[in-house]
Design goal:
The protein has helices at about 5-15, 25-45, 50-80, 90-95. By secondary structure, the chain is mainly alpha-helical.
C-alpha cells in the first residue's frame, strides 16, 4: 500500500482533474471554483460603478483576498499532484 501522502496526492488529482472529477465531491469542488470565478467577474464589473464601490469596497476587498487564497491553494495543489497525470513525467521534471 502506498504511503498516505501518495494516496492524498492521487485523491486530490481525482478531485481537481476535470476529466476525472466525476465523484460527487469532485463536482462540488469544481462547481465551487467555477462559481468563484463567475462571482469575481461580476464583482469586477459591479465595482467599476463608483457609488457601489464606495459603499461595498471593503466587502469586495475581502472577497478578493479570499479568492486569491483559494486560487493560490488550488494552483499549488495542481503543481503538487501533476505527477499523477499520465500527460506528465514523474518527479520534479514532470511538474
Amino acid at each position: 500500500m502506498p504511503p498516505a501522502s501518495l494516496r492524498l496526492r492521487l485523491r486530490c488529482y481525482q478531485l481537481l482533474d476535470g476529466e476525472n472529477a466525476t465523484t460527487f465531491v469532485g463536482k462540488i469542488v469544481n462547481g465551487f471554483l467555477i462559481a468563484l470565478i463567475i462571482l469575481n467577474v461580476i464583482v469586477v464589473i459591479i465595482e467599476s460603478i463608483p457609488e457601489i464601490n464606495q459603499e461595498y469596497g471593503g466587502y469586495f476587498a475581502i472577497l478578493e483576498l479570499f479568492s486569491v487564497a483559494i486560487f493560490t491553494l488550488e494552483y499549488l495543489a495542481r503543481v503538487w499532484m501533476s505527477v499523477e497525470s499520465p500527460k506528465f513525467g514523474k518527479g520534479f521534471k514532470g511538474r
